[in-house]
Input
Amino acid sequence: MVKAYWAIMQEYLSDNFSLKELSILLAFIQLCSFSSVAEKLNIEPYTVKRIIKKIEQGFGFPIYILQNNKEIVITKEGQAQLPWLIDFLQNAQKIFAIDKPLSIFASVFISHLMVKHCFQALADDKVVLSTYSLGRARDYGLLTKQMINTYDVVHLNQQYEHLIDPNLWVCKFRYTTQVKLYATPEYLRAFPDIKTPEDLRQHQCLSFRRQDENVWTFYDRNNQIHQVRIDSRVIIDTTFIQYFAVEEGFGIAKLEQPVVEYFNRHDLVTVLPEYRLDNQDWAVYVRNDCKHKAVKRFIDTFKQMVDDKF
Output
C-alpha cells in the first residue's frame, strides 16, 4: 500500500512539480517572504516568485495575498498545505536518497587523486565528480557560489571560503600545501642565472591570471618581503596543467610541492630555494543537510589520502 502510494506520488511529481519546487513552497509558507526563501535556499527571488505562481496555477487557488499592497499573508488554502508538505518531503527525501548520487566539487589535481585513491571506497555508490580550476573560481565567484551549493562535498582553496554559506556547510578538515618555484634543468641551463627574485624578470614565468598574478611575493631567511612584478606571456589557470607546461620546458611556475612530488618524472629543480612563498590552504566541506550513506566513508578515505600524500 505504501509503495503504491509513493509510486503514484512520484508519477504526479514528475508530471507536475519537482521536490525542489515543493521545498520552495514549504519554505515560502513558513517564511512568508520571497527574499527570505531565496536567501535560505540560495536562489534568486524571481525564481521563488515564478515557482509559487506555477504551483498556484497547478493547485487552482492562491497561496498568498498581499495585505496593504506589501505584506505577504498566506491564505487558508495555502496554510492547509503545510502538514502534508512536511510529511511528504520528509518521506520523499528518505526514499529518493537511495538513488541519489554523492556529488563532489573539487580542483583538477585533487579530482585526479580522488579517482585514483578514494573511489574504490565508493565502488557500490553513485558518484558525480565535477572539477574546477582556481582561475575560473576566482573569475566567476558568484556563479561558483551558485554551483557550490548544488553539491554534497566541496574541496575549496581557503581564499574562496567567502563563497561558502556557513548556514549550509560544515568544514570537515583543513590542510596546507607548500608552494615553491620549479623549472627543468634544461630550461635553467639555457637562460640567465637566477640568484634573486628580481632576476625572474628576465625569465618566462607562468601565471594563473594576468590581472592580479603579476606580483609575486617572496620571503627571505630573515622573513623580509621581496615583491617582483612579473610580465607573463603564458597564462594557465590550473596548477595541474602548469606542472606539465613546466615539465615541457616552457618556463618557471609556482607549484604546490605535492603536485610536483606526485608527477615528477622529469626531476624538476627548485628555483630560489632560499626564499619562501605563501602556502596554499585548503578546506573540505560537507553540506549540513547531506544524508548520503557514503559521505562519511568518502571523507574518511579522502582525509587518509591527504595525510598519506601531503
